User: Fold coproporphyrinogen oxidase from Paraglomus occultum.
Amino acid sequence: LGLTTAVMSDKNIRYLYDIAVARTTVLNVNSGNRVKTRAGWKLLIFASGMTGSIAYAYCNYTGRTPLLNETYCDALGSARLRRSSNEHNGSTSMDLKMERYIRDLQSNIVREVEALDGKKFLVDNWTRKEGGGGTSCILQDGNVFEKAGVNISVVHGTLPTAAVMQMKSRHKELDASKPQNFFAAGISIVMHPHNPMVPTVHMNYRYFELRDEETGGARLWWFGGGSDLTPSYFFEEDAIHFHKTLKSACDKHDKEFYPRFKKWCDKYFYLQHRQEARGIGGIFFDDLNERPAEKLFDFIKDCGNSFLPSYVPLVKKRMNVKFTENEKRWQQLRRGRYVEFNLIWDRGTKFGLQTPGARIESILMSLPLTARWEYMHSPVVGSKEQVILDVLKKPRDWA
Assistant:
């Protein structure tokens, strides 16, 4: 590695540095601050590479699959090597910053959930022939979670006119008569617990840009995402905790963010054909580009970092509560509603399926392992099941 880097440009050295740091992510090894000089870079790359090799060997010995191996890094390497000269001068483009953040967030969440569940995630690194790749981390038939997914994707290429048409309703300036070059990076999480007293949770944060064909720079860009809670049984203290945690993250940046994005979430995650919300909401936003990208990126990071403190305490509180067969059956019926929303109304699912090279397993990761539909089912009046239905009919101010 040392001999190789001795004859490489600084830009390629940065790429190898990314691979080395990605390898050490599994053991949370901090490679230290970047060294600005060429000699310093070579020394740091060598040290990081050696540390990464030890980490990789450790993973193989213990049977733990690295979250980010060299296959994944190679899949994304082409995007890195196409960065503008700004990266060479010491600054970092937003697409690379977002990629690094979601990769670190994925690792942190996977470790925390594995500790909670006691079972390891299956780590599936994949590439997209049209450009880019991703890592899907799936836990199935665990001790706490029936199915949990923590996925990231970093893709680029050309959007077909069908996908551009879907965006044109929100971006009038788009030319929908021709394909568009794009870049997208995002993290998507859905967790379906065994215990019906533990709520299902969803989180997604993403960065998207349309690129100029000549320069490769961002012509249009925006952030989107959010987090929401879908309980089968209603516990008011859980709703309050979840929303207050999200509100705290929003308030660091703008006191108007939480009420604005909470209202947006209530409106978006709504089953129009059922006249009920999918869950008790959270926050949701899209096409966010009203402020400098760096400011909004800081906001996205605070929202993403709020996921574990917003959800894990609820799981720990209720994961060992005893439940009946009837309560499990009700959970399956509520999951049926979840499936209906994702397949009929969710804009992200539709967009993903229209993107060339769409990875169906990743797009449909959000669906539960099991669900149920019963003809004309109606809960007993005054029952716990009726309570949650009443809650879902009208949004409340939980925070």
Observations:
- Residues 1-39, 54-66, 68-91 have pLDDT under 50 and may be disordered.
- The beta strands are 122-127, 132-140, 145-159, 180-193, 200-211, 218-230, 270-271, 276-277, 281-288.
- The longest helix spans residues 38-62.
